Amino acid sequence: MVDSKHQWKAWIYLSPAIVLLLVFTVWPIINTVRMSFLENYSGLEAVGGATFEFGIGNFQKVIEYKRFINCLKNTILLCVLTVPVSTILALLIAVALNSIKGLQKVLQTIFFLPYVTNSIAIGMVFAAMFNIVGSFYGTQNEIVVTAGIINNVLEFLGFERVNWINAGSSYEANIIVMTVYIVWNALPFKILVLLGGLQSINKQYYDAAKVDGTPRRRVFTKITVPLLSPMLAYVVITGFIGGFKEYSSIVGIFGENMGPVDDVGRLNTMVGFIYDALETNKQGRASAAALILFGIILVVTMINMQVSKKRVHY
After folding, report:
1. Whether residue 30 has pLDDT greater than 90
2. What distance in Å separates the CA atoms of residue 119 and residue 84, rounded to the nearest whole number?
């Protein structure tokens, strides 16, 4: 405890951090709430002296916007598809890594590399992998279309090539590409958290199970998963929060169009919707969309926490 006579010194030491938090965190949140309730708020018009009425018109316009439902559907679908798959894969990989002793550090580094790599750069690599690269005239003046590595593998296995992301591609193919990319990009952080949790489990539980001759599958379901449940709950909750904020991965693969060139905005998300509103100088509408997104994330997080109270063993 700091002596009450010297508390002013502690406040002086904390003041730089407090000032930064107030300026760059607290005030932007307050200002976002304020702008969301100002009808048709525009920053440029506000600088010019325009006044705006207080109301909920921004929220109504966001909900009535024709692309809003599409953005919300894409966001929810990507969350539902990627969070369970990435969590299960991360758990299996973490268990496998934990049982390897020789190359464990090397493999941990390899699995962690995507986490420290720029998501836009990774998206461009995935776009090249799934892309139809181009076409040229062959020796008989026929048009030859070159494909990315994924279609080359499919053709090698006897399947037909698929138009994953180019013009004319289907919505289902686009979602598959995005699911694969988001799952792959989300694995490193989850593996790191779950591996740390596995290494903190008391080995006496496993020794006792080994003495009793318990099958490995039962050890996994009755010992590993229950004791790892706090970390699992954490990665699920953070996974949903990150999934609802998905944006950069779609830009990395599809560019600013957020979809194939013949259907611009097909894969737009809630965060993309907010950026679109900001680009058109509709800060009030963007703030309202941000609060709606915050409300959705809050509800999903509360549901996850309620479920965790019954399923998590501390």
Report:
1. yes
2. 21
Please name the amino acid found at residue 259. G
Q: In 3D, which of 257, 66, 271 has the Cα closest to residue 167?
A: 257
* Domains of the chain, CATH where assigned: 59-130+171-311 (1.10.3720.10), 132-165 (no CATH)
pLDDT higher for 253 or 44? 253
| pLDDT, tens digit, 9 for 90 and up, residues 175-197 | 999 999 999 988 888 998 998 88
Across-strand partners of 145?
135
Alpha helices in 255-282 (DSSP H): 270-279
Hey, how many other C-beta atoms are within 10 angstroms of the C-beta on 262?
11
Dist CA 107 CA 79 (whole Å): 27
CA distance 75 to 81: 10
Residue 142, φ and ψ in degrees, nearest 5:
-90, 155
The chain-wide mean pLDDT, for the chain, equals 84
Task: Give the pTM.
Answer: 0.83
